[in-house]
Amino acid sequence: MDDLTAEEVDTWRANRDYLLWREAADCQGLFRYDIQTKNGVSVLCQHFESRDLGDGRTELTLDDVWVFDAIMACRFVSSALIVTREYQVLDLKGSVGS
Questions:
Q1: What values do phi and psi take at 37, rounded to 5?
Q2: φ/ψ of residue 96, rounded to 5
Q3: Is 84 exposed, middle or buried (0-12, 13-18, 19+ CB in 10 A)?
Q4: What pairs with residue 76 in β-bridges?
Q5: What is the distance between the alpha carbons of residues 32 and 90, in angstroms, rounded to a whole number?
Q6: Which of 97, 92, 27 is nearest to 65 (CA)?
Q7: Is 36 in contact with 88 (CB distance < 8 Å)?
Q8: Residue 32 gets which letter from DSSP?
Q9: Residue 11 is inside which H or E element, if any?
């Protein structure tokens, strides 16, 4: 197999990113919450709980999760744990909160 040119790599990445955004848009209607952290973690989930760790960080426990990550082979996971200093929650079925 021939080596890819820089242009071919850029095209491949652009296509991958486009497909990921399309998948996210298609999945959004299946979930209740869209959670995004300041450091770029983005997930869709059905349920989450938050716990203040007392040092400026919050632990988010998520159930029925879709992870916005182009590298993961399987973006659907049953649960996930995120520790972050800042996050934003969009309630896809109602109001906005954090």
A1: -105, 165
A2: -95, 140
A3: middle
A4: 66
A5: 8
A6: 27
A7: yes
A8: S
A9: helix 6-28
Residue 44: which of 72, 68, 26, 17 has the closest Cα? 68
Give the chain's radius of gyration (CA, Å).
16
Q: Supply 28's token pair.
A: 């959004």
pTM above 0.70, yes or no: yes
Topology classification of domain 6-93? SH3 type barrels. (2.30.30)
pLDDT digits 0-9 by tens, 53-92: 999 999 999 999 988 776 667 778 899 999 999 999 999 9
Q: Where are the domains of the chain?
A: 6-93
For residue 33, list its beta bridge partners: 45, 91
Main-chain phi, psi angles of 62, to 5 degrees:
-115, 145
Amino acid (one-letter) located at 4? L
